[in-house]
Amino acid sequence: MSDAPAARPRRVRGAAESLASIVLAFESVIVFLAGLVVFGLDALPAGIEPWWGIVVGSVLAVLMIVTGRFVRYTWGIALGWALQVVVGFGAFLEPAIGLVAIVFGALYAYATIKGSALDRRNARLRDEHPDNN
Fold first, then answer.
1. 28 within 8 A of 65, measured Cβ to Cβ
2. 3-class SS string, 17-37
3. Which sign does the torsion angle of CA 112, 118, 124, 130 carry?
């Protein structure tokens, strides 16, 4: 017999949580690269050092990765939306970032809205057919 403790069962992740965290993870790479673009094109207003583009891109990328861990909570989803808005403001510095904001904003909207609908549907099916769990 083994004295090892029993493995704790994994928490079941819903579709909204899974999809939203995937979108944020992929977007974090693009946001970091956008920070490099802002730096390379010297797109920041006069008086602001260009290296701030890299700093802000890196910080946003890390925030997106961290937020991906908290999208199981309502405030985590809201934080993800706030990050989408921040990325959208990047279009004022470089218009191409606006395209990124539109594409990933739409993906995040789909992930949160459709994922929640799938979670509700799966819960309803579990309630209707408890013997299939």
1. yes
2. HHHHHHHHHHHHHHHHHHHHH
3. negative
What's the pTM? Answer: 0.85
d(CA 92, CA 129): 52
Q: What DSSP character marks residue 116?
A: H
Q: Which residues contact 116 (CB under 8 A, 6 or more apart)?
A: 14, 15, 16
Inter-CA distances, 71 with 54, 59, 88, 90, 109, Å: 26, 18, 20, 23, 13
Q: Which amino acid appears at position 53 of this protein?
A: G
Dihedral, CA of residue 35, residue 40, residue 45 and residue 50, to nearest 10: 80
**Tokens 């809205």 correspond to what residue?**
113
Per residue in 53-112, pLDDT tens? Answer: 999 999 999 999 999 999 999 999 999 999 999 999 999 999 999 999 999 999 999 999
Distance separating the N- and C-terminal Cα atoms of the chain: 30
- Asked if 30 and 100 count as a contact pair (C-beta separation under 8 A), the reply is yes
Instruction: Tell me how long the chain is.
Output: 133
